[in-house]
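[recover] target loaded
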């Protein structure tokens, strides 16, 4: 019973709090705003991937395999 309430609370939190700004963007007719958000997430992901690859290269270069 408690686990069920926790998952319902998490679902409500994500739906009613965290995703509210995206609902406004979703229903806007501004194509540039919608795609800017998408490209921002793509750039953040690419930067994290490149950082991770750099760290792996340093780790391999130091002889720790």
């Amino acid at each position: 019973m408690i686990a069920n309430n926790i998952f319902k609370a998490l679902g409500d939190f994500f739906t009613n709090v965290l995703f509210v700004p995206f609902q406004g963007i979703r229903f806007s007719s501004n194509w540039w705003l919608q795609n800017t958000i998408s490209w921002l997430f793509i750039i953040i992901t690419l930067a994290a991937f490149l950082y991770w690859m750099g760290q792996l290269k340093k780790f391999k270069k130091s002889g720790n395999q």
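[recover] notes: The chain has a mean pLDDT of 89.
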